[in-house]
Amino acid sequence: MSIKIAPSILAADFANLEKEIRKVEQAGADLIHIDVMDGNFVPNITIGACVVKDIRKITKLPLEAHLMIKHPECFIDDFVQAGADMVSVHIETISAAQIKRQAAKLRPKGIKLGVALNPATALSKIKGVLGCVDFVLIMAVNPGFSGQKFMPQVLPKIKKLRSMFNAEIAVDGGINDLVAGDLIRAGADILAVASFIFGCSDYKQAIERLRNA
After folding, report:
1. Of 166, 116, 123, 164, whose CA–CA distance to 142 is shortest?
2. What is the model's pTM?
């Protein structure tokens, strides 16, 4: 399975968001990772479905809405209607039964549903939904802010998940070219990367360094 690089616009220049997205698209990004925060589940507030709707107008890349919010089931439809191709919800905020209901509703529409979990959350929490989700998103930092340091203790978690899950594994948080290789060897398929890409003067070079780590 080829490695996908998902620039996370949390670290982009929002005053020039269209330009930033076009630059990473031209640089070889595989999808755009959009962090949605509510100031409740995480200590930060970012963007909503209206911004996703505008992003959808300027790129053909798949869009993943990473919902770091409480009661995500109340907002999934809004993000799908706005143009999200993938939606990830945190197991800390939603029940397994609700995830299964959402998966049954989204799959016929061609929308991928993922379950996300924080560094301190055990894999046992998501075991009951692995059969119905399209991908798992493992957080390598405590969610909320860009620029945090990668937590290497998530590597065994990724390896364990790889042994029990045959679909895509995404990792988000603190990723750079120094840790990307370890993540890929552990079993990650998608790397959601914010500061390392948007803080680099050459987005194409940054993406290639991650993909070839």
Report:
1. 116
2. 0.95
Q: Is the dihedral of CA 34, 26, 57, 19 positive or negative?
A: positive
Tell me how far apart the alpha carbons of residues 213 and 200 are, in angstroms, rounded to a whole number. Answer: 16
State the catalytic residues: 35, 172
Order across the sheet with 32-37: list the strands.
4-7, 190-193, 168-172, 135-139, 112-117, 86-90, 63-68, 32-37
Neighbours of 151 (CB within 10 A): 17
Q: Is residue 159 very low, low, confident or very high in pLDDT (cuts 50, 70, 90)?
A: very high
Residue 41 has pLDDT above 80, yes or no: yes
Phi, psi of 169 (to 5 degrees): -115, 120
Q: Among candidates 123, 162, 163, which has minimal Cα distance to 139?
A: 123
Token pair, residue 145, equals: 């802010």
Coil, helix or strand at residue 160: helix
Please name the fold of domain 4-211: TIM Barrel (3.20.20)
Task: Report domain extents, the chain.
Answer: 4-211
Average pLDDT over the chain, rounded to an integer: 96
